[in-house]
Design a protein that fits this description.
elongated
């Protein structure tokens, strides 16, 4: 896992913990953090889209296989 992969993994972990905490209310978050829910979910959604696109780009379906080019 490269440097970017480690950062993305860390961000996914934080986002997951934040969502679980919102669902079950384990820790009472300060109102300052709760005011930024839309931003936090927006950044999480963008992160999912970007990493999904990177995965798709590395594993493109339309890539020609060596056997098919014979």
């Amino acid at each position: 896992m490269g440097k970017i992969g480690g950062i993305v993994f860390f961000l996914y972990g934080l986002l997951g913990l934040y969502i679980i905490n919102l669902a079950f209310g384990f820790i009472a978050l300060p109102e300052v953090i709760s005011n930024y829910n839309n931003w936090i979910f927006g950044i999480g959604g963008a992160l999912l889209i970007i990493t999904g696109f990177r995965y798709w780009w590395k594993n493109r379906i339309f890539r020609v296989s060596p056997v098919a080019s014979l």
